[in-house]
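sry for the spam today, last one i promise. struct tokens for design, 181 residues
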């Protein structure tokens, strides 16, 4: 029996439509789309209801889950090993990158990145404020109190594994002329 065009779609039809729409997106994009759709429909995200064993034949044959390696988040230690920062200044830029890309928290205050040293199992430098300031001077971080963020230059530096940037550039000191005695 064919469905009429005005017939209400079945749950399986709806799942297939959603699956088709999300198939080309990565896991992070899918999560954002589903969260947005749930919010627009006034729903809280909930676990999928159990499958009715009598309707097993109507479930699409294509699996709805992604392989575990794509959905598993990257740890800060893994990212440190991958990007290999060599200075505390580079680590601070990497922490801002991690916070933005993997925790979806792009904005931060100066002190928010300090705890990432212990999370990365790294010893913080003796002068965190100096190192943070070097990251700002290098153009890797834009500082604006609680609205600081990783800049495009900082993103490029981290993603290249700091290949072209070395450490943060040193600011040249102005020479002050000596006073005659």
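last one done:
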């Amino acid at each position: 029996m064919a469905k009429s065009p005005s017939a209400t779609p079945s749950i399986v039809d709806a799942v297939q439509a959603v699956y088709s729409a999300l198939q080309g997106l990565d896991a992070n994009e899918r999560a954002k789309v589903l969260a947005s759709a749930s919010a627009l429909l006034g729903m809280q995200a909930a676990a999928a209801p159990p499958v009715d064993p009598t309707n097993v034949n109507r479930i699409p044959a294509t699996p709805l889950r992604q392989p575990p390696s794509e959905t598993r988040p990257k740890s800060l230690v893994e990212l440190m090993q991958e990007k290999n920062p060599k200075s505390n200044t580079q680590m601070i830029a990497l922490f801002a990158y991690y916070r933005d890309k993997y925790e979806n928290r792009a904005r931060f205050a100066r002190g928010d990145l300090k705890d990432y040293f212990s999370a990365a199992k790294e010893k913080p430098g003796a002068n965190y404020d100096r190192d943070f300031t070097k990251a700002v001077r290098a153009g890797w971080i834009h500082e604006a109190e609680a609205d600081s963020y990783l800049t495009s230059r900082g993103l490029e530096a981290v993603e290249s594994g700091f290949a072209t940037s070395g450490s943060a550039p040193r600011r040249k000191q102005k020479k002050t002329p000596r006073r005659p005695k």
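Residues 137 and 172 are 12 Å apart (CA to CA). ok im logging off now
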